[in-house]
Design goal:
- It is a single chain.
- By secondary structure, the protein is an all-beta fold.
- It is about 0% helix and about 45% strand.
- It contains no helices and eleven strands.
- The chain has a four-stranded antiparallel beta sheet, with no helix packed on it. The protein has a three-stranded antiparallel beta sheet with strand order 1-2-3, with no helix packed on it.
- The chain starts with 6 loop residues before the first strand and ends in a 5-residue tail after the last strand.
Length: about 140
């Protein structure tokens, strides 16, 4: 859920997509207002404490044989083929739209595999666990 409880944000690992669905005052989930192709390995999505930004970590998938292009509302294209990336979006909390931020992604060190993340409760810091990094 976004921080205001008005939208359900979901990530689809195998198909490499994220979606935004409105949530009614009764808690009913509506038809998606947005679907984005972000590339294989999209593990999760959540907004930051200000509800202005959303992040989508992509773990590396070594056997993904196809490239998935992600079309963003700004008409920019991102290539994410299961690489070690964290996509960064601006989140419109009124319309429920994700808009590619600038920069649009953070590329982690090779073989790291960013997956789970949380925000520091008081400071402007975002922590990621790196599933594939054994060091």
């Amino acid at each position: 859920m976004d921080r205001k409880g008005k939208f359900l944000l979901s990530a689809y690992y195998s198909s490499g997509k994220v979606a935004v669905h409105p949530v009614s005052n009764k808690g009913e989930i509506g038809t998606a207002v947005q679907w984005l192709n972000t590339g294989g390995g999209a593990h999760s999505i959540q907004t930051d404490p200000s509800n202005r930004f959303a992040f989508v970590p992509h773990i590396a998938i070594s056997d993904l044989n196809r490239h998935v292009w992600a079309h963003m509302p700004s008409s920019d294209y991102i290539l994410s083929h299961g690489s070690n990336t964290i996509l960064q979006f601006n989140f419109d909390e009124i319309k429920g739209h994700l808009i590619l931020n600038s920069p649009g992604k953070v590329i982690a060190e090779k073989g790291v595999g960013p997956r789970h993340f949380c925000f520091h409760p008081k400071m402007d810091i975002l922590y990621f666990s790196n599933e594939l990094d054994v060091a």
